[in-house]
Amino acid sequence: MATILCYGDSLTWGRVPNGGRYPKHLRWPTMLNDLLGQQHQVINFGLPGRTTIWNDPFLEGRNGLAYLQAALETFGPVDILILMLGTNDLKRHFHIGAYEAAKGVEKLIEKSRIPNTHDFPVPTLVVIAPPNILSPTGSMAESFDGAIEKSQHFHQYYQDIAIRNQCIFLNAAGVLQPSDVDGVHLDTQANEQLANSIYSLIKMEI
């Protein structure tokens, strides 16, 4: 039995584009678990607003680096760690781009490989470049002002980080796009497309 930990933001958590949360069976980690079989455990540890390494002045506890070690110990031993973070890094109050988001992911990779007191083995890492941001609407528009162009560079920088750190890589923008409803979050079809793509990458790893 393999334990797969999905460490992400609202795209992993299951945010509905116009607000609310999808029921469990419509979130991509659950769909991935269905594809892998119930003898394996896929854990959805997404949190809306989570960043790679940044403290959000408006949302408490969203620094992904600060909670990763605790997550790995809580759910460990983890066989596969899936990292899909960076979308929230592009919120305008952080004043950073895809390059800095990718460097944040690299810090998460390094953290996941630090020896622990439980002698848990180092997990296999899957790095996912988040989907491109479309035209944000409603409350998303102000938060992600300027993020559309920045998000188009996720693929390049995340792939570089994944190769350098010997991680499995997936470019989400190559298989899906966010919903037109808010330009950021995933519809049910995109959740299914993401689950299928990850399954193809990791089915031989377990």
TrEMBL record:
Molecular function terms, GO-annotated: hydrolase activity, acting on ester bonds
Domain SGNH hydrolase-type esterase: from-to ranges: 6-186
Entry-linked CDD domains: SGNH_arylesterase_like (cd01839)
Matching SUPFAM superfamilies: SGNH hydrolase (SSF52266)
Pfam families on file: Lipase_GDSL_2 (PF13472)
Top-level lineage group: Bacteria
Name of the molecule in the record: Lysophospholipase L1
